[in-house]
Fold each of these.
Amino acid sequence: MIETKGYAAQDAKTPLAPWKFQRREVEAHDIQLDILYCGVCHSDLHQIHNEWGGSIFPMVPGHEIIGRVSKVGKSVKKFKTGDLAGVGCLVDSCRECENCQHGLEQYCTGGPSFTYNSLEQDRKTITYGGYSNMVVVNEDFVLHISEKLPIKGVAPLLCAGITTYSPLRHWKVGKGHKIGILGLGGLGHMAVKFAASFGAEVTMLSTSPSKENDAKRLGAHKFVLTTNEASLKSVKGYFDFIIDTVSAPHDYNLYLSLLKTDGIQICVGVPPTPAQINGFSLLGGRKSLAGSSIGGLPETQEMLDYCAEHNITSDVEIINIKDINSAYVRMLKGDVHYRFVIDMATL
Ligand code: NAP
Ligand code: ZN
Ligand code: ZN
């Protein structure tokens, strides 16, 4: 076993603090990644507070991991020592079910192994995430990272990036579409960048008037303050798609009313409590409420390559790992511009 340093939540109420734990030795198909940067996702916060239920403690969060390969197993073919590499939300899956066969490992019917707060495929070993100095992962779940982009801004692509890229590609959003992006945080700002890059007309739907200039700088063509009735009225029945990235309970019926006939509201945000949907919000206008979870390995690599080609990265604020708990407080207030990334050298 390899002694590893990290930051962990010991239970749902205690702030994160330094913690030592063990990772497996590098096996034949594994790589060891020395972690340079790790992004901070709102899912980290939901899970350390056990807002979705079933959290496993102690928990080392972090699934937006960038590092350098420091060791490879004897059968590893895809990576060599010194390579820049990334690990996102998945570290393994059954590899046999229909979804795994189609590169949709996130929908593995047997249940994928998530990077933390989850179990390896042996269903016994707990996984620990990227708020740590290194990680050991099977090479099939490791992504190639271009040396072209500033890697601090690449880390958040591993979750915020792929979670917004995947539904935009699945529903073929592009030229001629009007899309609303609900919530300007980590996911929202990547959704704006991708949707604009794919040629759609992008409207930022935000509760924060202070984010208007940033939304436009990121690529939004319009900004609608959702707390202002007149502003909201101007986009009733307007959108082909809405990507809903909101992390807190909110009124889905209100946003469904902004869709045109056959419009689709795609949920990627996962508030702690279930939504109440009025049937009339859907049937008037034949609307759909859909969801999308991260992305599989092939699509994550495609997204990273697209970003390298089109010079797309996340707008980040680099933090010292000692400041992680105050970063969470700011995240809860919507005060993130637009992703915190931990410099792991501070560990
Ligand atoms: P974040 O950076 O905290 O951004 C969330 C944004 O939602 C806030 O910046 C705020 O934007 C808006 N918001 C917050 N409370 C609101 C409220 N009560 N009403 C309306 N808007 C509100 O979070 P994130 O990291 O982007 O994550 C967003 C959600 O996606 C989380 O629930 C996370 O767990 C989930 N997630 C899902 C997946 C997936 O696979 N589907 C992957 C990653 C994350 P404004 O200030 O602009 O209003
Ligand atoms: Zn995430
Ligand atoms: Zn599977």
Note: The CA atoms of residues 253 and 281 lie 6 Å apart.
Amino acid sequence: MNAELDAWISEIVALCQPQNVHIVDGSEEEANTLIQKLIASKTFTPLQRPGSYLARSNPDDVARVEERTFICSERQEDAGPTNNWRAPKEMRNHLIELFQGCMQGRTMYVVPYCMGPLTSPWAKVAVEITDSPYVVVNMRLMAHVGKAALEKLGASSFVRCLHSVGQPLRAGAKDVSWPCNPQQTTIAHFPETGEVMSFGSGYGGNALLNKKCFALRLASCMARQDGWLAEHMLIIGVTNPEGEKKYFAAAFPSACGKTNLAMLTSKLSGWKVECVGDDIAWMHWGEDGRLYAINPEAGFFGVAPGTSMASNPVAMKTIERNTIFTNVALTDDGNVWWEGIGVGKGIEEPQHLISWKGVDWTPASSEKAAHPNSRFTVSISECPILDPSCRAPHGVPISGIIFGGRRSTTIPLVRQAKSWQQGVFFGASMTSETTAAAKGEVGKVRHDPFAMLPFCGYNMGDYFAHWLAQEKPGRHMPAIFYVNWFLKDSETGAFLWPGYSENMRVLRWMFDRIDTRVGAEDSPFGYLPCVKDIARDGKESEATLHKLLSIDKAAWHKEATELQEYFKRFGNALPDILQSLASPGQ
Ligand code: TSX
Ligand code: MN
């Protein structure tokens, strides 16, 4: 096998003292055994959907915990002003104490996994050690796990991901269906040594260390070193009626409908969208000077509430079978339910459910039936509009990069950057309004540069510089756009843009802009569409389109002033050009 892996396994066995060790091979029999075990421990409830299960977490373990997430670089300035930092030695000592004996009475699973197509030169093998069988069955859907990953690894080094739910099972004690340790939850990244250590949570990005911890935080550090990009972006292929195809990568903060855009159903005849990925893109420059993207993930880990035949019929088809649901509600006939599931299908709200907390729920209940951060985990293979080049070893060539945010005022429906530098500025200036889906005040504007605020593994100012440095002679730079589907009428408060499948009209404009088949209005804020190029058979009035495509100079001035203030927090690490681009036309 791999001597480094053997040594690490021995080290972790001595530290965590598990009852058994199981090296995950990735076989079907193994998955079935794990599922039977999860049913026996009441972690899984089988559903009346083929190959699908419901898990309910501990109510104190329902989301990523940013305040307990740390970047442990040797120098604090390498973590930058947007990350929590601890000195690596100090954090390691703290974690070794926590991990001491933490797997007593449990099985320790060793999960070798590959991020990216097994045949890809850009794919990376890592290993997660975990005491959670729930994590193992989710990882099986989200990455290539087991034998194939080990074979690809060979004798090489690998990123070490150590995870424990942090609740040892004492002799004779009865286990709970969702062991965890919320009081002591800690997620630590060691970029210089290529390690993640996560203690106390079994949920999502806290526990599936391949996703946010490795494929974004650590990978962003590796990408900076080696001249590529690890980004929080969906990847789609767009085909026009002539059969020409272009790929786009797009970054949005949470609650902007990223998965919905990744699976868009076109309403424009002859136009088609296909899905490569909905969350993460690893992008490298090809020998032809173009930027190529792979999706390092093998599955979707999507938010369930709001997903419906109206908002995302492709997702609804994707999750018909072989899906793990976490923290959704259970219907009396053994099916799943969540807030918004029936929109567009006329499904009535049920009179009785079992809520995500496992208790009876009726329409009179004051709490939601599904948790707002409830999830589905499903293999990407189940997606009916999977792009044929989804697993292309060298990735797909990116023609356009889309940034976006949820803003009810100020930011127009779509703009194109006039240069790579202005495009990087678009990414750095990303903001979004908070929604009821996250805790805290609703409607507050938050900065989330490149949608990477919680996921950049190093100093965000250095990250901006890394993006600027991508522009080099001989490279064919993708066009960069900024979209806002969420403008509201200042008088009525109604959304001005229909969104969803109608966003295809905006994608068409971007597609045609890339080879300048359509014109634009030049402005200091970027290229803006002419009304006629977005309009469709009187769907919106000319006045509405005007509101969507114009810039209110006074509001923009306020926006720019606030942005200049925000940029100050990056200090010396902020590239000068970004500060000067924050004041256009001055
Ligand atoms: O996902 C969304 N998208 C992108 C779709 C590809 N949502 C949902 C956001 C929460 C996850 C949207 N919501 C979008 C959108 O484009 N737009 C809106 C706002 C909106 C909501 C309801 C309507 C219109 C716009 N309804 C009617 O016009 C009838
Ligand atoms: Mn994400």
Note: The CA atoms of residues 1 and 224 lie 31 Å apart.
Amino acid sequence: MPIQEVEKIWMNGALVDWGEAKIHVLTHALHYGSGVFEGIRCYKTDKGAAVFRLRDHMMRLMDSGKLYFMTIPYSVEELCKATKDLIRVNKLSGCYIRPIAYRGYGEMGLNPLKNPIDVAIAAWPWGAYLGEEGLKKGIRIKTSSFQRISPNVLPPLAKATGQYANSILAKVESLNAGYDEALMLDYRGYVSEGPGENIFVVKDDVLYTPPEHASILKGITRDSVMTLAMDMGYQVLERDMTRASLYLADELFFTGTAAEVTPIREIDNYSIGAPGPITREIQAKFFEVTKGGDERYKAWLDHVYP
Ligand code: PPE
């Protein structure tokens, strides 16, 4: 689906016209993947648009930058304010937000350190990542033959542009094989995550998700779902899992800013079945919370129109 264009993009402190938000072809990040980014969602609530866990995302952007020796020339506060200004200027309510900090134009070659660090934030309406149908009925996934990057290859904790070459290979492999999405295993052979999502397993009313050492990106949706599930009275465990244990799961679902809470109905041709009761309950709670329907989690929402 083509990106739905809006009016303005924030670039290095200024609001520029959508069509003018351009970079030079010799931009360092284009050649070497030397950028860090975020994906954030803004939801329509009773009190107008609200960005979900904005500060947490901007803090992770800073951490990703640190892992690549990039000092982002704006504070978390400035980036949060810029995001909300951008949403207002574009008169958006529900939208996806893509902040990116990247090594710009200057020198060529692997040493990025003398290149400027440019920062941009874009926002546009983006629907269900794995389709409306996927959100309701669940998706089919396939274990990838591409292993998830490991801690001594690239830092999985960083959300860096170059690291997504790994995700793209897994994603395309799964699409070419007729599935909706991939599942990636870590360097030890244990379950890691999807190309752009964390995974949860439900077995005997307990929720399991792979730990940090399984080479995951520590998802903010993953953290939110863990909190919500525990508050709902479920036990949630971070644990290494084998692919076979997923085949025997009662329920499976992906989490992510883009993917939200997406049920998985089939993995490697093993049927898990229609979205189960716990997946449905957590998905419903997640959407209630993001849309401002539960007072207990209002600290997660940053209102755009005060
Ligand atoms: N793992 C990976 C590898 C990942 O990229 C994401 C987000 C997650 C887990 C979930 O993290 P969080 O969004 O904090 O819950 N992927 C982003 C980019 C997806 C894309 O296609 O681009 C996203 O969901 O915005």
Note: Residues 39, 167, 193, 196-198, 217, 219-222, 255-259 surround PPE (CB under 6 Å).
